[in-house]
Amino acid sequence: MSAVDAQRSVDDALAVLAVDADCLVVAKPAGMLSVPGRGPSSQDCLLSRLQVRFGDLFVVHRLDMATSGLIVFARSAEAQRRLNRAFAERAVEKRYVATVDGEVAADSGEIDLPLASDWPNRPRQRVDPVAGKPSVTRYRVLERSATCTRLSLSPVTGRSHQLRVHLLALGHPILGDALYAPDAVRARAERLLLHAEGLAFAHPGSGAWSSFSLAAPF
Q1: Do residues 70 and 197 make contact, with C-beta atoms less than 8 angstroms apart?
Q2: How many CA atoms lie within 13 A of 173 on its CB side?
Q3: What's the pLDDT at 13?
């Protein structure tokens, strides 16, 4: 496959679930940055590729590079302001699915552990009872096996790497997590098995409740 064909293949994989004058909901593939990073080698990202197709877009939230799934961009400053407020007021419903190491005992639960940046080991985050910001994740078991558990995850807060660090603290790191999982757990999957499968919010233009879902590719 040529470089041009490879680029076209990746761009074709950017499934657009909804687009109108106010916002754009798309599926981000695993392994792609949501927005540009630092340095010239980190400029290729979901935002820049979408802007080629749709013009100016405004960032509302992000997904980790290793995470796949649903993400919304605003198409005007006013739509961005309204969506940002909805996220800040926790008026947006977010649902993830993950496959984690080991058998999670409880059918459901809540992880309430404050998180802070692990400065000596950036970009890692860590549980910090003193300086950490309040961070809450609710989980529900979807399926168990002898070696792993599939979970539905609902983050109440939206801290960086929240789901990955919370599940690590629970004793069940996500399979394929190159940043937090032990080597043996990391090697059990070719990618991070974390996917943003559900997203719902009040439309920034009409105010109508808008709900989207996208099945995990694993």
Answers
A1: yes
A2: 17
A3: 55
What was the pLDDT predicted at 172? 98
Residue pair 159/136 in contact (Cβ under 8 Å)? The answer is no
- Spatial separation of the C-alpha atoms in residues 92 and 201, rounded to whole Å: 5
Supply the residues annotated as catalytic: 64
Q: How far apart are CA 26 and CA 15, in angstroms?
A: 6
Task: Give the CA angle between residues 191, 132, 73 to the nearest 5°.
Answer: 50
CB 164 within 8 A of CB 137: no
Sole residue written with tokens 């998180």: 115
3-state per-residue secondary structure call for the chain: CCHHHHHHHHHHCCCEEEECCCEEEEEECCCCCCCCCCCHHHCCCHHHHHHHHHCCCEECCCCCCCCEEEEEEECCHHHHHHHHHHHHCCCCEEEEEEEEECCCCCCEEEEECCEEECHHHCCCEEECCCCCECCEEEEEEEEECCCEEEEEEEECCCCCCHHHHHHHHHCCCECCCCCCCCHHHHCCCCCCCEEEEEEEEECCCCCCEEEEECCCCC
- Higher-pLDDT residue of 4 and 134 is 134
Residue 8, pLDDT score: 38
